[in-house]
Design a protein that fits this description.
By secondary structure, this protein is α/β, with parallel strands linked by helices. The chain has a single domain, classed as Rossmann fold, CATH 3.40.50. Helix content is 41%, strand content 13%. It has 11 helices and 8 strands. Strands 3-2-1-4-5-6-7-8 form an 8-stranded mixed β-sheet, sandwiched between helices. Helix 2 links the parallel strand 2 and strand 3. The model has no long low-confidence stretch (mean pLDDT 97). Bound molecules: NADP nicotinamide-adenine-dinucleotide phosphate (NAP). GO terms for molecular function: NAD+ binding; prephenate dehydrogenase (NAD+) activity. Keywords: Oxidoreductase. This is Pyrroline-5-carboxylate reductase catalytic N-terminal domain-containing protein. It comes from Hymenobacter crusticola.
Length: 248
């Protein structure tokens, strides 16, 4: 597939590298000057592109930037794309980083607001895995304990294409419902960065309680920010399982 990725941080970079390794044609963008972007793209096995170009002539776009950045994109960036181009929001909203956004504070699902801001239907996926898990947590189909991710969105065709891609990438997939349901995989929910198998993730999505996650999300971040060293992937997942699932 031809894939454009906005953002080359831990999430966008991991997606780009693994997708290029799988043989996809990947182009990436970030905020750097052309020479630095070109160097980053080379490291990832991708091509460099300006923001306006990274979404052109592709089958699929991944958006991997902090939530607050979406409002800064040019208004026409996505609106003119052909409808068959699949746009995937991998992002999460963290008020400590993105500043408080009223609609999200009032409970609007993050990707519903993102779709409004971008003027375009979206799928939400990969947001419930740590970047390190995206980078190296994938396994072959059928592997015992294979980690699953959730795809939420309203376009069945787009979901199927992304689901096949995620399976090739190394993860089982569960249907996270409509984009309006995507609050069930936001930070602080049982589905969020708890590294579950497909049946466990399906249950975790069902167990999410409306309005409960933001407080837990902020509590977890506040604890993380007080630590001297950032925890390992295993420590984050164990902590999330303890607090979000009530089990070690
Ligand atoms: N880190 C995780 O474990 C994780 C896991 C799942 C989901 N998420 C979510 O996924 C999103 C990305 O996470 P991340 O950790 O990769 O973020 P990050 O480290 O902040 O990287 C963001 C990337 O976006 C680029 N960027 C920012 N503004 C841009 C703009 N206006 N145009 C083009 N590129 C722009 C940055 O460019 P520069 O490189 O030039 O600064 C950077 O490459 C966030 O919403 C995050 O909450 C994170």
């Amino acid at each position: 597939m031809k894939i454009g990725i906005i953002g080359t941080g831990p999430v966008g970079g991991s997606l780009a590298k693994n997708l290029a390794t799988l043989g996809h044609q990947v182009k990436v963008t970030n905020t750097r000057q052309p020479a630095e972007l070109a160097q980053k793209a080379k490291e990832l096995g991708a091509s460099p592109a300006a923001l306006q170009d990274v979404v052109q002539d592709v089958d699929l776009v991944f958006i991997a930037v902090p939530f607050k950045v979406l409002a800064e994109f040019p208004k026409d960036l996505f609106r003119s794309l052909p409808p068959e181009v699949i746009v995937v929001d991998t992002g999460n909203y963290y008020p400590f980083r993105d500043e408080k956004i009223d609609a999200l504070e009032q409970g609007q699902p993050e990707s519903v607001l993102a779709a409004e801001q971008l003027g375009r239907p979206l799928l939400k996926a990969f947001n419930n895995l740590l970047a390190e898990t995206i980078a190296s947590g994938g396994t072959a189909p059928g592997t015992l304990g294979r980690i699953a991710l959730s795809i939420a969105g309203d376009d069945a065709r787009a979901k199927q294409i992304l689901s096949d891609l995620c399976n090739d990438f190394g993860f089982d997939v569960v249907d996270g419902g409509s984009l309006a349901d995507s609050w069930r995989q936001q930070p602080g929910t049982p589905a969020y960065c708890t590294e579950l198998t497909a049946p466990e993730l399906t249950q975790a999505l069902a167990n999410a309680v409306p309005g409960k996650a933001p407080q837990l999300r902020d509590q977890i971040i506040s604890e993380l920010l007080q630590r001297e060293a950032w925890p390992t992937r295993e420590e984050v997942v164990a902590g999330n399982r303890a607090r979000q699932l009530g089990k070690e």
